[in-house]
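Hi R.,

As promised on Friday, here is the backbone we talked about, encoded as structure tokens. Could you run it through your design pipeline when you get a chance and send me back a sequence?
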């Protein structure tokens, strides 16, 4: 029974990881472009489907379009994505240098990451509350005994603790990555 709630908690943690992958740190990473959409013949298309995103150096990202006629659209999409990056193209590839983060910007990013983590902790606790409510309804309906209710709520609490712990570890790693 608690398994249904575990999969929801797992999805929350996975979603947090996705959200954190788009937070730009001082290092170049192809994942910061995951949410960039390029206008490909009228269809918003993920950047990695219209070109190759590579990281040749620690502070440089290179985008090589599959179709050279898209180079302008790709450049516009990166500028519109509000990543604080200025792409430059030489007609064949787009180069994006990743500037080092200022101390102030690092603090802002840590604050943003902390707030995001808290939102996901709340989501986990909400899943626990939903589960406990369901178990109580089942007990009232006679589907669960008092002992079974206790066992299920204990299992759910252990899952909640496990996933909140995982969120804390992910946040700590992201904070360390931003501050390095």
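Update: got your reply. Pasting your designed sequence below so it's all in one thread:
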């Amino acid at each position: 029974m608690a398994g249904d709630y575990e999969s929801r908690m797992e999805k929350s943690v996975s979603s947090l990881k996705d959200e954190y992958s788009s937070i730009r740190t001082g290092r170049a990473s192809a994942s910061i472009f995951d949410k960039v959409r390029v206008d490909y013949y009228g269809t918003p298309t993920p950047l990695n489907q219209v070109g190759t995103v590579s990281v040749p150096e620690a502070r440089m990202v290179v985008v090589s379009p599959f179709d050279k006629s898209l180079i302008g659209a790709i450049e516009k999409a990166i500028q519109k994505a509000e990543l604080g990056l200025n792409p430059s193209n030489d007609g064949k590839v787009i180069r994006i240098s990743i500037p080092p983060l200022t101390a102030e910007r690092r603090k802002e990013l840590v604050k943003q990451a902390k707030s995001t983590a808290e939102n996901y902790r709340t989501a986990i606790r909400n899943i626990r509350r939903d589960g406990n409510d369901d178990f109580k309804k089942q007990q009232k309906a006679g589907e669960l005994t008092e002992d079974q209710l206790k066992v299920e709520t204990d299992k759910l609490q252990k899952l909640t603790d496990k996933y909140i712990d995982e969120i804390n570890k992910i946040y700590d790693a992201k904070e360390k990555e931003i501050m390095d």
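One thing I noticed while checking it: The chain is about 55% helix and 15% strand.

Thanks again,
M.
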